[in-house]
Queue: 4 jobs
Job 1
Amino acid sequence: MNRQITTVSTKGQFVIPAEMRSALGIKPGTRIAVTLDGVRITLEPVTAELVDKTRGMLAGGPDLTKSLLRQRRREKDRW
């Protein structure tokens, strides 16, 4: 494991070391997925492979559109 130390700024930003950015193909504008796993934070460049791996993770959950429409109807009926 290649571990390096970096410092978080007052804005919550930090620098990913150049050799790590280069090894992962991270360039300006690359989107990064941030995952909290217990006490670890994992950063992954958003690639087609990552999108495929996470596709459907929210499937089977509540239909947010229907839920929002029901809520708005209830609020409208109150007035």
Job 2
Amino acid sequence: MSTLDDDMQDLESAEDFLDYFAVAYERSVVQVNRLHILQRFHDYMQRVALPDDEDGQRAAYREALTAAYQDFVLSDAITEKVFKVFQAAQPRKVTVALTDMRRF
């Protein structure tokens, strides 16, 4: 009998994780956002204290994966800014007084 840890070692793709944890998904959402979903899932799991029992752990993983997937059903990768490349400094709004412009 395999354990949750053993099973998770065999999961490779976002679809594998979603299927394993029985999270319903639209293939088109996953195809566009698979890496973002997995990274968000990882980020959510970093904040969770896993229960000691395997059933509780399985529930925690499923909840985090569902939330990660839903983030990209309701939004997109650019808005969610999961990866550092999307977190680059946002354009700043600069205000220049008219009196400063007249000096040139």
Job 3
Amino acid sequence: MHFHIIGEIANVETIASGNRIRILAFLRKQYGPGRWRKLKGVARIRLSDGTLRRAEIHWFEAHGIGRKKMRIRRFLD
């Protein structure tokens, strides 16, 4: 499902970091080495059909690499 984040991501929390990330080997191979963390937060998003929803978003992030593999975990409205 394709979506765009509208505004800021709020309530950002770290779910896992380092070896606790299941796909750490994939992330390092695909995007390079870094201090990878899995994060979650709440954001307002626009879906591909144009509707606006509030959703919990999960993604992976490393310093100097940025946010990767963002996905919608659940809708909050």
Job 4
Amino acid sequence: MEIAFKKIAKESLNFELVKEEMRFFGKVSRKDNGLILLKANLIGQISHTCDRCGEDLKIEINEPLEILVSEGIYKDAIDELDVIEFYDGYIDFDGILQSEIESVKSDYHYCGKCQN
């Protein structure tokens, strides 16, 4: 799912994306000329393997997200929020969702047997 930067105004625009067992939903609004503020939630579960024994497991996710989305190169490094840059005039929500899932997977996760 993509939305053009020029379609997003100061008033919030709702979005929702469901992929497999994940639900990514929230609002986007224009912060200033080249920046969009994305406030969202990521809820669901993803399949992963235990980082110790290799057993399959499900990771439960319930994360609030607040991200700046930049149209082009982001120049102001003072902001406290994470920034994602897009260069084709569109915000790619599938790409943001996949990036957040991979970020969760990059952490260490252990099955019930290996947590002790």
